[in-house]
Amino acid sequence: MEYLNRSSLLDGPRKADGVHPAVDWLADSALRPLLNSALVEPYDSISHALEDASGKRLSIGEIQPLSQKKHQAYSPEWFVSSAMSGVGSLLPFVISGKLTGGGLRGASSYLGLEGRAASILSSNRLAQISGAGIYAALKRPNEGETRLGNAVGTMGAFAIFDAGNSLAGISRFNKPGTLAFAERSAIRLGTGFLGGASQAELSSLVARQKHADKELLLQSAVSGASLNIAMGAYHDIASNGKNTDARRNKSSQNKESKASERTEDPATKKIERGLLGPSTDSLNLARSDNSAARSNIAEPKAEGNVVYIVVDSGFSPESLPPRENILGTWDPTGEGVFNDPLQHGSVVLSKLRDSDPGAKFMLIRAYDSKSNLAQTRFENGQISKAGWTEAYLDAVSLAKQLKLPSVANCSFGEFTHAMDGTGWESYQLSHAIGEGKAGHIVVAAAGPGNGSARHASGIVEVSGRSEVNISQNGEAAFNLWMGKDAPRDWNLSVYEGNQKIHHVDGAHLDSNFWNNRQQLTFRSHIEGAATRFVLSRTGNDPRPLPFDFYIQEGKATFLDHVNPQLISEPAIFPSVVAVGVRNLKYSPAQEVLEQKPNVLLPGEGPVSFRTPEISYAIAQLLKANPNLDSTQVQNLLGKFPKGKN
Fold first, then answer.
1. Most buried by CB count within 10 Å: which residue of 18, 80, 197, 303?
2. Would the pTM of this model clear 0.70, i.e. be above it?
3. How many domains does the chain have?
4. 607-624 vs 630-637: helix crossing angle, rounded to 10
5. Helix, strand, coil % in the chain, rounded to nearest 5
6. Where are the alpha helices (DSSP H) in 561-629?
C-alpha cells in the first residue's frame, strides 16, 4: 500500500514533457489565474468594449486566456485559483480607480463646483468605488451575467472593502507590531470575504432576480478576501516606502543636530518644537524641527525664496510635494495632517504646486472629517487647546527662523462669526500681519458669494425688544455678538413656534478679554416650525444695544434684519487679503476700492480654488521684495487683477 505524505507532490514522478508536478500545479492553480485576471482580462475587456461601441471587429483583437483546468469545487486547487484571481485583479482595479479619480476631479474643475459637491467629486473613495464599477461594466458578461449587474455588485463590494479598510486604518490598528498587523489583516480578510460574497449576490439579483448559487458565492468571497488583503498590502507598502525615506532623512538630521547641539540657542530650540508639539501624522514626513530643511534654505539659499503656509482640510499623500519641500506640519484637529476626507486641501495644495513647482510648504490641517474648524478653546481665561491660528503663528515663527517670507493660503470662507474682525482669530493674526509687519501675508476666500441671508443685525433701544425670524430645517449653529462695551441688560429667548426652547440672561455672560465684547454660540435643531430669536432689554441703561447674529453652520436663513455684508472670516479680518470673484455677491459695496473683498477676480468660481492664484502672485512679489507688508501688497495687486480666466 502506498502511503501519501507531505512530500508526495514534491517527490512524485515527472511528466512526459519533463515538467515537475509541483511546477505544473503552481502554474495551473496560481500563475495562470493571476496572469489572466491581471493582464489578459483587462486587455480583452477594453477590446470588447471598443468593439461593442463601434459595432465592428477591431484589429487589436483579443488574447485568449491562459488555459486552466476546471478544478473540483472546494478542492485546494479551487481555493488557490480563486484567491489568485482576486490578487491579480488588484492591478486593473487600481488603474481604473486612478483614471476615474482624474476624470472626476477634471469634471469638478470644469464645472466650477465648490463646497460639498466639489469634495464629493474629488473623493478618493468615490473614485475607487466608481472606477471599480466602470471596469466591471467594461467586461463582457459571462452566461447569466449583465454589465449592470456586474457593475452594481462590484461597487457594492468595494464599498464594503472601503468600510473595512477605514476601520483597519484607525490608530489602534495602524501601528507597528505583530498584534496590530494580525488585527488589521483579520479586518481586511473579513470585509474582503463579505464584500466578495456581496458582489456575487448583488450581481445575480440584478441580472437574474435570483440568489447566487453557493459555489459561486464562496468563490467570489475567496477572491474578494484575497483582493482586499492585496489592496491593504499595496497601501501599506506605499506608506512604508515614504516612512523609510523619512527615517533615513531623520537619521541624517540626528547626526547634524548632535554636531550643532552645543551652539544652538535654547530659545530657538523652544520655537522649533512648536506650540502644538511634534507632528503626529501617520506618514511622519516633516516636522517643525526639521533641521535638514532648515539647512537647505538657510542663507544664502533663502534669498529669492518664499514658503506657502497652506491652512485647509488636510492633504492626501498623492497631493504632497517631495518630502524635502515640506518644512513643517501642524494638526490641531488630532486626525492627522496627511489625511483629507473632505478632499479640499489636496486640491488647493495641488494648484499651488502646479503654479510654483519646487516651492516650500508648511501644512496646517484646520478642518476635521466632520467639517468642524479647529478653533482655540479656553478654560478659566487660558488656552486649553490650540486652534488653527496658534498653528499659523507657530508656522510664521519657523519661517522667521529660516529667514523666509511667507504667504498663507486659507481657501475656506463659510464659517462666520465676529465678521467685523474683532474675534479671537483676528486678534491672533494681527500679531503676524498688518501694516509695518513685513514679509508675512494671509490670503483668504471671501466666501461663497451667493448673497444668502446668513447675517442679521440691529439695535435694541432701552426697554425695547427686537425679534429676528429664521427659516431653519434641521440642526444649525448660531453666533450672537454684542457691541463693544455695550449694555449688559438683555435677555435672549429662542422660540420654536410658541414654545421657548432656550433662554440666556446677558447679565451673567462674561465679555471676551481680548475685545470686551459679549459672545454667545448656541445650536438648535428645529424642523417644520417657525424659529424666533427675541432680544429684550431689562434695565434702564440709556445706551443702545447693537447686535449681530451669524449662521455658523447648517441649513438656515434669516427672514428679517438681514445684513448684506457677507464677507466670511478670515477674509473679513483687517490686513487679510480677501479674494472674491467679480460676478458673485458679497456686499453692495464690493467693487469700491476700500471695501472687502480686496481682490475681485474675473471669470467663474469656486472661490476656494481660485484663491491660490492670488497666493502665487503675492509669493512672486515677496520673492522680489520680502520687506512688503499686507498694505503694500494689496496696493500692488489692485482690486481687479487679470487672473487666469
1. 197
2. no
3. 2
4. 110
5. 45, 20, 40
6. 607-624
